[in-house]
Amino acid sequence: MKVLAGDTVTPPPIWLMRQAGRYLPEYREVRKQAGGFLDLCYTPDYAVEVTLQPIRRYGFDAAILFSDILVIPDALKRDVRFEEGRGPLMSPIDADGIAALDPAPVSSHLEPVMETVRRLRNELPAETTLLGFCGAPWTVATYMIAGHGTPDQAPARLFAYREPEAFARLLDILADLSADYLCGQIEAGADAVQIFDSWAGVLGETEFEAFAARPVKRIVDTVRARHPSAKIIAFAKGAGIRLKTYRQTTGADAIGLDWSVPLSFARDLQKDGPIQGNLDPMRVVAGGRALDEGIDVILDVLGGGPLIFNLGHGITPQADPDHVTQLVRRVRGRG
Ligand code: CP3
Description:
With 335 residues, the chain is an alpha/beta fold. The chain has a single domain, classed as TIM Barrel. The protein has 16 helices and 9 strands. The chain has helices at residues 25-34, 37-42, 44-58, 71-75, 95-99, 106-109, 111-123, 137-146, 154-162, 164-188, 205-226, 243-250, 263-271, 281-286, 288-302, 321-331; strands at 62-64, 81-83, 87-89, 129-135, 192-197, 231-236, 254-256, 275-279, 307-311. The longest helix has 25 residues, at 164-188. The radius of gyration is 19 Å and the shape is globular. It starts with 24 loop residues before the first helix and ends with a helix. The mean pLDDT is 97. It binds coproporphyrinogen III. Coproporphyrinogen III (CP3) is lined by residues 17-22, 31, 37, 64, 66, 68-70, 82, 87-88, 133, 135, 139, 149, 196, 198, 314.
């Protein structure tokens, strides 16, 4: 929270995107008990447990609520499923489907997530930041339109060109629901929130502004209207040079950087405010020298300013949990 307020903290605080997940044997155990992935998200007993697992094991400075960005389309009754080895699936939406979306039941559907947040704030140590999150409208829309993950989000890009009015309506609906969802998490005890725009990088110049930056600003403005001091991190993966104006356009306090962002450029971005990132998750899989060297260069270049140490994207299932121990130790200066 100090870094989000603009302070430089040495050593920097650390948490990892996707820190609760399949690389941890204790997660896989609970996942088996829960049955479906969405059952895990909507059962506070399970969701609290898997949120706490990485905190117990590594003592990260922040816990991130265990849920998924696709609970919003699930609450909109888009038939969301997670099938083993296939990632998320749902019925692809079209213009008629967008016109028929009913936001009314969404907040009661997501009430179990609020219960999870309340319990977490009670159970976590006071010094551990509790992060809430949602997906950015563009990234959530890509899954709703294609009905599954794709390498380049071609279906959503095409839909946006062919059906601009319906597409704009979808982004507005998602932005307003996401803002309500984040406000609910803040009211339930989240200390700060992160907006994940994992697919921002596939957009052209005009589209990045209209589909990624503006809808995130709409969320930030709505959240701040209700919670003026809310702390917000925005992560736009693949945004590259467009990060120069992204903080200002969106109004986010901190910006998340993926591992392709050059550290010299990251240093410039840090002059305008806090940054978060940006170790390549594959360095955590590799371990050894590749891991140490990746950590050291980030700390050397960015450690003198407001930095939240993180990966440049989520930790992957093949990461060795012992490599995460090595990572945390080295960042904290005991390596
Ligand atoms: O960070 C955390 O530990 C908190 C939980 C969290 C999950 N997903 C749990 C999850 C968060 C913050 C997310 C965000 C998310 N979900 C994003 C944005 C960040 C990113 O990684 O790009 C996206 C695009 C999704 C959608 C999603 N959920 C996909 C594409 C997948 C399948 C890929 C995969 O890793 O399996 C999921 C499933 C998912 N979400 C899992 C977890 C732990 C794995 C599901 C399982 O246990 O089988």
